[in-house]
Amino acid sequence: MEKRVVFRSAWLPYALVAPQIAVTIVFFFWPAVQAGWYSFQLQDAFGERTQFVGLANFAALFRDSNYLHSFQITAFFSMMVAGSGIAISLLLAAMADRVIRGALAYRTLLIWPYAVASAVAGVLWLFLFAPSIGIITFALRSIGINWDWVLQGNQAMLLVVIAATWKQISYNFLFFVAGLQSIPKSLIEAAAIDGAGPGRRFWTIVLPLLSPTAFFLLVVNIVYAFFDTFGVIDATTQGGPAGATQILVYKVYYDGVKAADLGGSSAQSVILMVIVIALTVVQFRYIERKVQY
Amino acid sequence: MVENRPWLTVMSHAVLITGILVISFPLYVTFVASTHTLDDILKVPMPLLPGHRLWENYWQALTAGTSKDVTAPVGRMMFNSLVMALVITFGKIAISIIASFAIVYFRFPLRNFFFWMIFVTLMLPVEVRIIPTFKVVSDLGMINSYVGLTLPLIASATATFLFRQFFLTVPEELAEAARIDGAGPMRFFWDVVLPLSKTSIAALFVIQFIYGWNQYLWPLLITTDESMYTAVIGIKRMIVTGDALTEWNLVMATAVLALLPPALVVLLMQRWFVKGLVETEK
Amino acid sequence: MNPRRIGAMLALSALLAPAHAQTEIQWWHSMTGANNTGVNELATRFNASQKEYKIVPVFKGSYPESMTAAIAAFRAGNPPHILQVFEVGTATMMSAKGAIVPVAKVMADAKEPFDPKAYLPTVTGYYSDSKGNMLSYPFNSSTVVFYVNKDAFKKAGLDGEKAPRTWKEFVAAAEKLKASGQECVYSTGWPAWMHIENFSAWHNVPIGTKQNGMAGTDTEFTINSPLHLRHVAMLGDMAKKGLFTYSGRRNEAEARFASGECAMMTSSTGAQGTIGRTAKFAWSVNFIPYHDDVKGAPQNSVIGGASLWVMAKKPAADYKGVAKFFAFLSQPDIQMFWHTSTGYVPITQAAYEMTKKSGFYDKNPGHELAVKQLTNKPPTENSKGLRFGNYVQGREVIEEEMEAVFAGTKDAKSAMNDAVRRGNDILRKFEAANK
After folding, report:
1. pLDDT at C17 (0 to 100)
2. How confident is the model at residue B122 (pLDDT cuts 50, 70, 90)?
3. Which of A98, B65, B267, C338 maximizes the CB count within 10 A of its CB?
4. C212: nearest Cα among C88, C375, C384
């Protein structure tokens, strides 16, 4: 991790890191500290009166059943997005690994959703599932399912899960393909010689060797579901109906920006910070292990 | 594939094709909707074959936006997105590569401290510091400006890490040779390191362009002036809850326009994109 | 003084007088569509009527968005002069004493004539403080009215000219419409505004203590009274039977009515413009239904819409321009223009009379109906309006609970009790932050 040959200069390295450090301090650390500071205050919307209230904002959050419900929703949402995303992309990757002809074409056609912004993905699926005019709504109604996500919380959750997962399939797919390709062919061949069929080989050899990739993707997908799906929620359900899709990050935005509740929103930000730090630590400790694997 | 099992190969192709069809379905419907009139779309079910209003719809979206004065013309918004994406991409690459160079090739006090500072930013996505960052930007007078849209997003750890990893694989002999020749560190950087980093830069370009173009929460917060909206947030605002019906045909045309540039970048620079994705996460 | 010296002095003062630049007055609003056109027209007319001040209207997004933008701008030291704030933001704006200038003060300081009595009492009551001083200028006030698809009624064997007046009649009509094959029988825009706030005013029952919050920030919600529970339970029941289709928290229902999908709808009087343009069937505007076994019903409905607030920290001379603009807006002919081209109600008696005389109401009875419903009876403590802090959040909480009832996942009693509990929490937070 260290270079043998290094340069020495009194000022040059500082000059080189300066831009990044400057932006980091001004736009990352300073606001993060402020978020912490605001979380201990009670302010009116215009910031004319501020009172220091200690941990009252946090206490209020944990008493609020709505906030605790948000935790549940976020956990459920991220499990669904991560789980279905990984399962579907694993299937596609396994199939892609088997075919030789048209491999590049398949890959090309499967990775473009990554380029779609999550808000745009949300809008696309919103259109398909719109209660009155959606084409999928029409299909569901014609087989007797009454689709109305505006009122049915479960259906709203299904809508956002589909929109969020759709985008991630490409990403997961690429990693699985890379992972599959790094499995030594000799292992597979040895198993085949021993008489194991493709199914057997998949379950007993391929899957265990893919588990680091799968675990890595699990963490990444959860972080994605926690944060990057803001666009999906805002473009479609805005947390409704009745809070059925109000994930934690959306609540931070709503309380801070729409409801002008600075103290409560900042307290939620602090809690989210703790969660993301925990997730990042897990991710990096595992990556370190993975690299030495 | 070890042995030859034709039915399994057929099944693989079938699964893949089904997957592609399912994944591409939304795009297909979106495209079809963008070629019809609003009345056609409101008739349930909507037609599944393209209509005849492609040019009119796209032209209207690009030059006039919807007729509800809710957004600026999409052409303007795409320009904003382009500026944002390109400035963030080049900015990030530039400041990360020099910061990374400094951290790898120099020994100086506070080196590790700076490295960890940059690392910590990974744990502070915009979403956990929304309001205070907004306030900082507002205090600096950067609301509704290109600077405000791009500057706060320019520092990030992923690019720095990618370069650091890459630099660690650069053979020591090259640096030694430079030292022997009496070349200073910056000469070494320009003549040796930079050319070698080309593929990493290309990979990062793809990833960061998509990242910058698809930004949602940040532009949502700091632009209150229609003429500064980006394409991605413009779409959401077109879904009107005001007096009248959402003009879905124009919304869909805008959606297609909004996803075209990043999709093109991904498809045309596929090789670097894949490399970039797989490498940045290590 | 001899004329030559006077002439010289005049010439000198003309040279020394600063070149008279037009003072720009920034006006942030949230009007879209036809209303947006109206706003720009008003600005054009005012700017043409005098040369000292120039009103610059800027569309800043929806009501919550423009309010957020203005708060941020204020904190950064650069707010607009005039901000259009929706009615639920009234309490927040009122308590921001350092951020706003009461309209009464603006007018008095600029010595512009301003008589609160010229305005409709339901309107002024909402935007005045307890001493009767008008705090904001009522610009676009609407109320909720009841739209009926006359053709759908005929098809169901009902008399299209006789809209249901009581909720009993309403349910009966709904059942007949459903039987005639109507998919969506009834929907509503702004569910809490219609079925809680206006419902309470229309039946002369309180929404909250302390005169619905007008008399103090230590108010508490009372929307879990037996009458409220009965009404919400009725709606839940209708939803289960398919007689009520929920469309969302804003005005999504309006598009469904205009397209013919839903046969009956309650929503803002402001929807008439769009419906008139798009509906391909005969329709009428009516008083909202009431429960005829409640004493005192029907009382009067309350306003919705928005008002114009004047923000502080602008150069003192600018406020004269603001005052002039408000005086301009109060002129009856200007009021009439605004009222007839949008669906909003005229806010002065004079404007109302002028519109009546012009025969406009003979051709557009729906526009007059809103005024009639607002002035049905002189307002009581329960029907003057409401003023709850952080009511943006409060209304969302109430609507969340109502949604649970409509979806059948909660019964009316627990939902409304929860709404009261959560709503009171929000009120207490506001009270504490604004001591």
Report:
1. 46
2. confident
3. B65
4. C384
Cα–Cα nearest to A219, from A87, A92, A82: A82
User: How near does any CA of chain C get to the CA of B272, in Å?
Assistant: 40
Looking at residue C108, its amino acid is A
- The mean predicted confidence, pLDDT, of chain B is 82
In chain C the domains, ranked by start, together with CATH numbers, are 21-142+303-374 (3.40.190.10), 144-301+388-433 (3.40.190.10)
Three-state SS for C77? coil
DSSP C96-123: -TTTEE-HHHHHHHTT----GGGB-HHH
pLDDT in tens, B232-257: 888 877 775 544 467 788 888 888 88
Q: Which domains does chain A have, with CATH numbers?
A: 58-291 (1.10.3720.10)
Place of tokens 């400094």: B102
Instruction: Give the pair of three-digit tokens for residue B273.
Output: 């994109």
Chain C nearest C-alpha distance from B72 (Å): 11
SS3 C84: strand
Distance CA A239, CA A241 (A): 7
Strands C82-86 and C23-29: parallel
pLDDT at A292: 35
DSSP for C1-15, please give it.
--HHHHHHHHHHHHH
Measure the CA dihedral A148/A152/A157/A159, to 10°: 0
CB A48 within 8 A of CB C96: yes
Tell me what the pLDDT averaged over chain C comes to: 87
Query: For residue B273, which of B206, B214, B218, B180 has the smallest C-alpha distance?
Result: B206
Of B224, B226, B241, the CB nearest to C252: B241
| Pair of tokens at residue A223 | 């972080």
Quote the radius of gyration of chain C (alpha carbons, Å): 24
The predicted-structure confidence for C214-244, as pLDDT tens digits, reads as follows: 888 899 999 999 999 999 999 999 999 999 9
Which of A150, A257, A259 has the CB atom closest to C390's CB atom?
Answer: A259
Q: Are C111 and C219 in contact (CB under 8 A)?
A: no
CA dihedral C155, C156, C159, C164 (to 10 degrees): -130
Whether B138 sits inside 8 A of C35 (CB atoms) is no
Q: Which residues contact A123 (CB under 8 A, 6 or more apart)?
A: A235, A236, B235, B236, B239, B251, B255
pTM of the shown model: 0.81
Sign (positive/negative) of CA torsion A58, A63, A66, A71? positive
Q: What is the pLDDT of residues A128-170, one digit of tens each?
A: 888 777 888 888 888 888 888 888 888 999 999 999 999 889 8
How far is B190 from B272, CA to CA, in rounded Å? Answer: 22
Q: Sorting pLDDT into bands at 50, 70 and 90, what band is A181?
A: confident
Tell me the β-bridge partners of C286: C146
B117 falls in which pLDDT band (50, 70, 90)?
confident
Q: Is residue C75 within 8 angstroms of chain A, CB to CB?
A: yes
In terms of CA atoms, which chain A residue is nearest residue B262? A115
Interface size, chain B vs chain C, as Cβ–Cβ contacts under 8 Å: 59
Where is average pLDDT lowest: A62-76, A99-113, C207-221, C385-399?
Answer: A99-113
Find the mean pLDDT for residues C380-389. Answer: 88
pLDDT computed for residue C346 by the predictor: 87
Distance CA B41, CA B47 (A): 7
Query: How much is the pLDDT for C19?
Result: 46
Instruction: Give me the domains of chain B, ranges plus CATH numbers.
Output: 67-280 (1.10.3720.10)
Answer yes or no: do A115 and B248 touch at CB < 8 A.
no
Q: Which of A217, A82, A117 is nearest to B266 (CA)?
A: A117
Q: Which phi and psi (to 5°) does residue C86 adopt?
A: -70, 165
